[in-house]
Structure formats: structure tokens, C-alpha cells
Amino acid sequence: MDKFWLGICNGLAAGMMIAATGCLFHEGLYLSHAANYGVSVTYRLILGAFLGVLFIKFTKVFLEDYENVTVCGLKGLDARKALLIMAVMTLHSVSEGIGVGVSFGGEGGIRRGHIVTMTMAIHNIPEGVAISLSLVPRGLSVFYAVLWCIMSSVPQPIFAVPAFLFVEHWLPILPCGLGFAGGAMAYVAVRELLPESLEDTKSIPTTMSATAFAFMVFLTIQIALSGSI
Question: Nearest 5 degrees, angle CA 174-CA 193-CA 216?
């Protein structure tokens, strides 16, 4: 793929990830039913975001010791960046899965849970597009990209079940989990994808336009599904 279009893809993926980060932070801040646990929801969200950024930074340092790492045919720097993106998108599915499970708890939980589950299922489509836009231009085959898009959402049903069964135990850490996922995703978008996009397009307006377009599309889909970000 031409480097210019690779830059466009990175800009689009960054825009979607930044929008997803905003959605995660918004959800974490408005978890009123998780508020009565000593430490405020805001502090738990900020702590989670800080830990998410630290996790990605330490993961980058760890991967730098493996210059010849290979992932699904990708090698070197492309493989390390692919691993970061895969890790971020998979980890954030854990928090979303907990959110789905918790939504089934309490009065009116069945109806609310069905709405959240349907919303999350459709919400996974643009997230899958973001993964593909990040990985396919780097040389990952379409088959492996599709496979990873599917695998990145597997934690959702796995963590939804225990979250529903033990809702009172999961609620206190949910804001922290959402913050962790959002912080990690924002770091990858701002520190990895956007600089690469600028380097490849050699045009700040082009990169910003691609990022803003993807950001608005993702938010529009989210608002259409749930009525809010």
C-alpha cells in the first residue's frame, strides 16, 4: 500500500480509538450505581487511565527487547506495533464485558441488559474496522485481521457472566477498568498511530481530517445506538 494511504488508515484508526476512549471515560464517570464505595468514581477512573498508560509504556519497553518478533507474518517494528494494538483492543473488551454483565443486575435488568448487549454488538463493528485499518496496511493478511477482530471481542461474553453473577464485587473496579482501557487506547492512538499518520501523509490537515472524520462517524454511531456517548 502507498505510504500516503497507510497514513490515512492510521489517522482513521486513531480517530476511532480516540472516540472509543471518550465513550469509555463517559461511561465510567456516570456509573452512579458504582459510586458508594469510599473512593470516588472519578479518582478510580483516573487511576485506571494512569495504569493503562503505564501498561502500554512497559509493554513497549518489553517488546523492544525482541527486535525479531514475528506475528502472523509481520516482523520487527510492524509486529511490535500490531501486538500493542491487539493487546489494547482485547483488554478494553474485558471492561466492556463487565459492563454488559453488570447491566443485567437490579430491577429492570433484563430489558436494560438486552439493550446494552445489542448496542455493544453493533458498537463492535467500527472497533473491528479500527483494528483492520491499523493492521492490514502493515501487511497482516485479511484472514488474520478478521480472526483478530473476532478474538478481540471474546473477553466480552467471558467476563459478562461472572460480572452478572457477582455484580456487587465487580462494580467497585468497573470505573478503574474502563479508565485502564481508555488510557491504554488513547496512548496508542496519540503516541503511535497519529505520529505515523503524519509521517506518511506529510500533511497535518490531511491527518487531522481523517482523524476527525473517523471520530465523528464513531460518535454518531454510538449516539444513534444509545442516545448518548
Answer: 70
